[in-house]
Amino acid sequence: MNPTAQRAPIVLAVSGASAQPLAQRALQLLLQADEQVELVVSRGAIGVWQAELGIRVPSEPEAQERFWRERTACGSGTLLCHRWNDQAAAIASGSHRTRGMVILPCSMGAVGRIAAGVATDLLERCADVHLKEGRPLVICPRETPWNLVHLRNLTALAEAGARIAPPVPAWYHRPTSLEEMVDFLVIRIFDNLGMSLGDLRRWEGPAGPPPA
Ligand SMILES: Cc1cc2nc3c(=O)[nH]c(=O)nc-3n(C[C@H](O)[C@H](O)[C@H](O)COP(=O)(O)O)c2cc1C
Predict the structure, then answer these.
(1) Nearest CA to ligand 1 atom 20
(2) Which of 18, 22, 57 lies closest to 40, judged by CA?
């Protein structure tokens, strides 16, 4: 990878599916790793934050940056928040360099609109840009069960070059808390971008080290 690409930001996009705590932990780990993060939270996600956790995420970028800095208790890295419908933001253009984009979690609505090439907000436009530029796009769909329309849309996105990485837990690392499970899911998702966001008890075969 060339040095310019290495310095480019990661886009973290959050849509209105359940599992907002995964997005918050991803943001925290990225900032702790001193990454440059461009964050876009969809209007639907703002509603889910409110419904799931009783938290009001501000729409305006400056207020949102203060909000996330406080919530993640992290002052490192750089954080640039975008308004959900600001399609004039730099990340809406392919000329703006990024290292890739992760949509965590990704609603079935966003999956469908991105698969159809319809960009009704910044998140969808930015995903469209990553596909057209051939840059890494990791989509973490959260719904169960998937109907045939969901499966076809996800297939179309995989065919267009996206990586489909649903946040599905594993037990081989022997989690003892929800926090451990969340970290496992987030770190495995960012594995898809070749990033190491933390230590993980990875499977080393049945003869590997016994769990602590
Ligand atoms: C509490 C709550 C949880 C939701 N969970 C999901 C979900 O897991 N997956 C999904 O596709 N939609 C879910 N929805 C519906 C989406 O939020 C809704 O379709 C929304 O329009 C998506 O907006 P967005 O795609 O612009 O983010 C949920 C809604 C609420 C209020």
Answers:
(1) 44
(2) 57
